[in-house]
Each structure stands twice: as C-alpha cells, then as structure tokens.
Amino acid sequence: MSVRFQELDWRRTALGELALRRRRYPDVGGVDRDVYEIKLNDEYLMSSLFTVAELELGRLALAELADPEGLAEMTLDVVVGGLGLGCTAQAVLESPAVRSLVVVDALAEVIEWHRRELIPSGLASDPRCRLVQGDFFAMVRDGTGLDPADPDRRFHAIVVDIDHSPRHLLHPGNADLYQPTGLRRLAEGLHPGGVFALWSNDPPDQEFMAALAQVFAEVRAEIVTFDNPLQQREAANTVYLAKAR
User: Fold this and answer.
1) Which domains, and CATH codes, for the chain?
2) Which of 52, 131, 157, 174 is the most buried (most CB within 10 A)?
3) What's this model's pTM, rounded to 2 decimal places?
C-alpha cells in the first residue's frame, strides 16, 4: 500500500467519536508495515504497533490453567472482555485446547470492522469464536452472564482488556468491577480453579492486588516489557492473574 495514512472508518457512538486508521510505518524494526489504530475521541485505545502485552495476556491466562502435562488434553471455554484489534482473542485461539471463545465488546462498530475484515484478525471466520455486542461490566454487575445464549454458563478463563488500568477507566461506571464485590460477581462466572486475567497500562497496583486476594485463591502480577521504537525505549504493561477457589 502506497498511502501513508488512511482513515478506514469513522463513527459517532454512544461513547464518542470512534475512528479506525491505518498507517504505513517506515523502518519499524527494519521492515515497513501497516499499523492499525483505534481512536476514541482524543484517546488512542490500541495500536498494532504495540501488541506484545495484549498477546501475553491471552497466553498467560491459558498457561495458568496448564497441568503438568500441558494444555493438549484439556477442553477450555474462554471469554474475552474487550475486542479492540483482536490481539488477545487471537492469542487465546492459538491454543488447540480452546473449544469456544466468546468476545464481548460494547461497540457494535468494532465488531462490524472485524466482520467486514477492515481489521484483518480472522476472528469472525473462526468457528470457535463468537463476537457479542454488550456491556461487559453490566453483564457482570447484573448477573445476566457473559454468554447471552447461556446465562448460567461458566468459563475456564475470563480475560479482560478494556480500561487503561483499575484506576484509569474509560467510564466511571466501570469502577465497581475492581472492588471485592464486583470481583466476586465476576468469579461466579468461573469454574473452580478458573483464571481471571486483566491487562493494565500501569505498574502493579497493591491496592487492587489486595482486592483480588480477598476473592481469589492465588493472585500475582506479571510485568510484560516490550520495545517502543517510536520513543526508543523499553515500555512495560502489567498482567494480573487470579485463580478461582
């Protein structure tokens, strides 16, 4: 593609102005490549230039479920909260142990981009994956379940990448999920021994770790580092991992 910048779609949504963009970045890692960006109002929600932590979020969640023999003999049902560019969902589907994946996103427009392949994730064509439009936080809060087709369904892993961190939220109404009461509701959607995994743009938050420890049997935070070629420095995100009782 010769065009250096292209706005693939722009929509006015309930959350504000949403845009999908594609840029041609020269000499990033020595190879020119297309980079996809999602922007909401003045905030960049995601860029495919930085996907290491999003991929690790899905991989680390499944690794927490592995027995000594690995995942090969397991059959897993997973839900991902937050679709974005689809990186975390793609990482989950890398595992042949995953039988089904439900991906919940509040924005029907983002789901449409994947179905139209404006974002070339391949998720919409994977028979194991179902894209569901809904408010993940409301689904947890109201007890309606994370799978509209089966409200009582439980999952082996619930993986979330929506807010910037437990303190920096896209909407103030999301705050209750990060408190013990909200975390207990979320844990009810897990099988015993199931895993809750959360991405954060901030360093590990000890207050949030303490809230997790009130609800889950095992809690830890993984720092994921990656190269930032634009700023010529190493960057870091956090992945929280919590195992249900």
Assistant:
1) 49-243 (3.40.50.150)
2) 157
3) 0.92
